[in-house]
Amino acid sequence: MTDDVDHEADQHSVIRTLARWLLAVGLTFAGVNHFTSATAFSAQVPPWMPWPEAVIAVSGVIELGLALALVALRRFRPQVGWIVAAFFVLVFPGNISQFVTQTSAFGLDSDLARGVRLLFQPVLVVWALWCTGAWRWWRQRRTEHSRGTD
Q: What is the dihedral of CA 108, 41, 21, 17, to 10 degrees?
């Protein structure tokens, strides 16, 4: 019975690792594209945001840094997961802006396509928290803290 549990835990670990690397690759691809396709990214910068070129460049650098952190900072993986999730929340207004202004970019040339993209953003948040063990880490810390204060 223990071998089955260990095997299942190993499978989950492999799946989480693959998911984390896939997320890192996606962030790397997006980060690089901030510099190679900056014009397309301007569709996501809300009209009220100052210095759109700087916003595009800085967010690209952040994405590259987050990708590196996902694979390199093993000791801080849960914290990195929370930071990546927060980043996905922070860029969400740009996705909303693209939907509201009906700006086409990245093949998102209809309200349906832009709307589906909005629905995918929470998936990215959950993905970041799950593949880094951030959610589990937070729950364990809360449990340990509540036991310590009883």
A: -70
Domain positions in the chain are 2-149
| Strand partners of residue 105 | 108
Q: C-alpha angle with apex 67: 57 to 34, nearest 5 degrees?
A: 25
Q: Are 23 and 127 in contact (CB under 8 A)?
A: yes
Which residue, among 74, 66, 63, has the nearest Cα to 132 in the 3D structure?
74
Hey, what are 103's tokens? Answer: 């700006």
Taking residues 51-66, report their average pLDDT: 92
Most confident range (mean pLDDT) of 54-58, 67-71, 137-141 is 67-71
Q: Which residues contact 45 (CB under 8 A, 6 or more apart)?
A: 52, 55, 56, 94, 97
Tell me the β-bridge partners of 108: 105
| pTM of the predicted model as reported, rounded to 2 decimal places | 0.79
pLDDT band at 5 (very low <50, low <70, confident <90, very high): very low
Q: Of 32, 34, 23, 30, whose CA–CA distance to 83 is shortest?
A: 23
Give the whole-angstrom CA distance, residue 45 versus residue 56.
8
Rounded Cα distance between 69 and 138, Å, is: 19
